[in-house]
Design the sequence.
């Protein structure tokens, strides 16, 4: 609710990027649950790729990582001004996440020399852009449907292979481009739990969440988890 009071304390931030011809509110079943778990979710509407964009062009995806960084800089300034969220944003603990083109956008934010404010990333049904994963190693979680007809799982796995830091890949065999992001659909419970565990580990340093992650991700015949270089 827009008029809801701001909770006491400082909270890590998740910058969430929507896909082509989408809107932030269409991802609310996931992002509102992240907010309930203790994160401020900042979900921009990208001007050239959203559902209602008058000048829609998929080519603008290559510019969206820079847009994401502009949003982060705006949030840093916002935290120091007279705003309801001032004093409540942990702007040194930020994650990027996104679906489809938003997943590519997320990967593109992890380039050479990126700020240490950006602690981790979640790529949902996406892959890498030119220059992705060249910066300081950061934990990354990839989530992909095994039968995705729009962005094949092989694209996500190639990005996973390029990631230089701790990484995990949650596959949903037989699923498509994002139905697992809808409550009630097979795999939604596991995707929600896995992504929340990952965010709590990387932004709150919650080792209990890291240790829960493999079990929370596991549902025979629905999900399969691969990990690399995660801490013990």
Sequence:
């Amino acid at each position: 609710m827009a008029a809801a009071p701001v909770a006491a304390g400082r909270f890590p931030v998740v910058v969430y990027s929507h896909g082509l011809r989408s809107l932030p509110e269409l991802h609310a079943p996931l992002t509102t649950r992240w907010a309930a778990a203790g994160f401020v979710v900042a979900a921009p509407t990208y001007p050239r790729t959203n559902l209602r964009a008058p000048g829609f062009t998929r080519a603008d995806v290559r510019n969206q990582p820079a847009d994401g960084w502009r949003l982060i800089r705006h949030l840093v300034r916002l935290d120091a001004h007279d705003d309801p969220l001032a004093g409540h944003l942990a702007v040194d603990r930020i994650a990027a996440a996104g679906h489809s083109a938003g997943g590519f956008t997320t990967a593109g934010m992890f380039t050479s020399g990126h700020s240490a404010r950006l602690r981790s990333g979640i790529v949902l049904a996406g892959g890498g852009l030119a220059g992705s994963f060249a910066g300081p190693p950061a934990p990354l979680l990839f989530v992909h449907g095994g039968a995705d007809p729009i962005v094949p799982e092989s694209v996500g796995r190639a990005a996973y292979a390029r990631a230089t830091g701790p990484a995990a890949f949650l596959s949903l065999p037989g699923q498509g481009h994002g139905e697992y992001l809808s409550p009630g659909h097979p795999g939604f419970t596991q995707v929600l739990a896995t992504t929340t565990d990952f965010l709590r580990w990387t932004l709150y340093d919650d080792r209990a969440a890291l240790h829960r992650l493999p079990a929370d991700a596991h549902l025979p015949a629905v999900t399969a988890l691969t990990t690399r270089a995660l801490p013990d």
Q: What stands out?
A: The chain has six helices and seven strands.
